[in-house]
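Course assignment 3, question 2. Fill in each field.
Student: A.L.
Task: Predict the tertiary structure for the chain below.
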Amino acid sequence: MRVLRVALYTLCVLALLGLGALVFLLKTHPTVRFPESLETKTSESVRTLFLGTSSMAWTDGQSTWLVDGFFSRQPLGNVVFTRLTVDEMQINAVTAEMFKRLNMPSALSGIVVAHSHYDHSMDAPFLAKQFGAKVVGSESTWQIAKGQDLPATQMELVPGRGRVKLGEFEIELIQSAHAPTGFTGGFNSKPVFLPAHALQFKEGISYSFVVSHPGLGPGPFALIQPSAGYVEGQNKGIAVKHVFLGMGGLGKLSEAYIEKYWQEMVMNTGASNVYLIHWDDFTQPLMKQGQSQALKPMPKLLDDLEKSLELLKMFSKRDGVNLQVLDAWQMVYF
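Answer field:
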């Protein structure tokens, strides 16, 4: 009996030590050296404000629209152990700072949702109701919107590929792919009511966004790839100067995959400027005690930003492409 007690005690100690090590690793953020920032313009023309993960606020001085708009960014413990709901205080703080920096009134023409995981889709219905926007996305995103009682008149479904006009901007949605991780796949077939666990938010369709504006010429000028996935040949016939390249999970994939991803998104579109997005730990807030916060990389247990960044820096130097890692609250002018 004594031997059994000792064995059980030892197992409990080992389990606690293992859990402690896991928590430590998930709370430890690597230090990464980023490339120098690209030179930015200071005009009040078409511009975008980066807001962590793949969230961005776009404006031309006349109207404003969002990619995703995920601002709740719940702490890791909440994501793992509880059911999630929108953090209205955090959202209100972020949007107030966002509109202030954009120098725009508090109104949105639309929110395009990259896919239906919680870190892209959960806040969009709340933002749409707050700021008079429509949500643009898949059937899986519509089920999330239904769970938050968003009127059908404020939802535009895109089953695979389509275009939407938001103010003077035209955004083409192209069916793409999520990075091949353990969280990929699945569809929401019924309303997702809040609070809900993070795993209840199924991917649905993952999109790329191709952005055009008449003030910048007749063709598209930017490609947004929110997730580090791709469909071979998806960008055939698309030429842009700027690519916003999702990094989430890329460092855990093979070097061959990363190079093919670069080829599809950057070389095949002829881009000369690449801005890295979705590299950050989205369990860290954008605002804290009224102050805007810088981003932190994902813990190395979940991603290896140092590895993927070194490869992309090598590719950019080889191919003559400007490379920049965007931090939260950073503005890009076109």
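Instructor remarks: The first strand starts at residue 47 and ends at 50. DSSP finds eight helices and 16 strands in the chain.
Grade: pending
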